[in-house]
Design goal:
heterodimer, A: 292 residues, mainly alpha, B: 362 residues, MetI-like fold
Chain lengths: 292, 362
Amino acid sequence: MSAVISPNTGVNTALRYLLLVVFALIFVFPILFMVVSSFKPAQQLLRDTASIAAFLPVGDLSFDNYAAAFRRAPVALFIFNSVVITVVTVAGALFICSMAAFSFAFLEFKGKEVVLAVLIATLIVPFETIAIPMLMLVNNLPWIGAGGLQFGWLNTYHVQIVPFLADALTIFLFVQYFRDLPRELIEAARLDGATWFQVYTRVIVPISGPVFATAAILKFLAMYNQYLWPLLVTQSEQYRPVMVGLQYFFQLNIAWGEVMAYLSIITLPVLIFYLVLQRAFISSIASTGIKG
Amino acid sequence: MKLTPTKSLQNHPLAGWSLAGPAIFLITLFLIVPFILAFTLSFTNQRLISPNPTEFVGMRNFEQLLGVGTLVLQPETDEAGALVRDATGELSYPRVRDYTRNNADYPQLDGKREWLSWNWGDAKVYVLASDVVFMKALGNTFLFVLFVAPIQAGLALLLAVLINQKLKGINIFRAIYFMPVVVSIVVVSLLWRFIYSGQSGLLNNMLGFLSFGAFKPVDWLGNPATALWSILAMSVWQGVGFHMVIWLSGLQTIPASLYEAADIEGATTWQKFRYVTWPGLRNTAVLILIVITMQAFSLFSQIDVMTGGGPVDSTQTMVFQAVERGYGQQNIAGGSAISVILFLIVLTISMAQRYLTRERNR
């Protein structure tokens, strides 16, 4: 600490806060505007953009826009689809990726180095570059369902789930965490006669809560916010998730009140979830940076 | 630290392969196979559904996409050799399409259209392309990446430095800056379509208010001069918190003792940033640049929701074109060819970034 406290320290601190607040307003205002507008009738919504009232819950507030949004599109169905797809994918990916990571972190086997090298290489392939050939691929894949053996995965839940059950980023997240775990635990379990699968489920999984939380948050955000892939593979309404459902609101005659209501419906749960678990969210993102 | 080799590190091929098996199978089927397919299909005329068998067409798709040619036109002269000027004094030139349509003297220009043109003295220079829309998409994508990478990385670093101060309530600001990251870019795009709107758009009204009415409303997304930049600004707004957090974790690895030493030496804030902070962030900088570059090359959702590539193709991007052809027109081969070009560009750039930073670390 400096010996002399400069006289402008108070001013300095005030300026720092001012800068912080200005940035905060830039990030908050659009989201605030979205939520507040969702409760306003169309006429007032447009009028309010001319003043600070755009960000304030004032005037004639109601849930009319929400009711209208539910009439315009099968909103409940979209939410149900998104929940099914997201929950199943996150759960499945955590299991499959952590199990693979366990194998990479603790077991030696022939070909492991090659597999790891290929996995690292896949990190620089943007999904967007394989989406089109993948569309071709899934259109020809077989699936055994209620109707027996069928070809073509388009317009289903599984076409939105199975391709995302394993990814290199999630696997490396687990590998990083597992490598720091004490090996004595594993050896002790092996001496007691546990199989490798039992070591994974009974020894490793119970002490890996933090990395499961991190991976779950990252996978959840990626899946829930997905747009391009579900757009390509769901021509029929029945399997569309919320982000594709957005199309019902911007393609013809946009009613902005309804748009804001729909955006709020699909965004607020995630925002609340984030604000409650804010630290976990931010440290999840930070942990993706450590590998660099 | 040395880990002593233990029994658990011995070969367990059966357990190893079976535990990693499901992940390896899925990644092979849904990443490696489509990746190989992209290359294979780009040399064919494959369509999503077609009654005709698929044929191998060699480089035709790539020639179609990337074919360019130049044409220099001299102004027309009369019999005496003087330049012909029209009523307004402008020079007149032969028509470009006289050269590009069935002109036996210029077979290399056949079917091409004007992409760019400028004056060179009295002559007029044309750059012609077989696929002008794709060329515009290529140009826009590069423009977007070139500007979004430094702007977003720089702003994220500024925010990270702000957030790294020891002030009361700083965690609240960190939480707020990160907030847009958890909101889907699709949601953000539709929201900002209203903010950018030409009539009663929030941005125009706010700018008008802040400038006491001096600001003239702009149709941000409807004007070819502003559309791409508006999308860029919004993308930065949504994504900057993500990179702020990565910078922040880099900042926090720099030992406090270095700053204390700099204080004793009487270093200014800028000197501390330049000689202590920045050298400690080099690895983080590489990671952030690669991540932003890859994301920026994948630009699609914003375009699909906000502009559909318009106005006058000013916001066309490579992924948007790949989807429009591969899905919209069911031309899987054409879409795959664009994907391959995109991948080769991303690969080249991330290898170059890695190579350049490796040199510097020595």
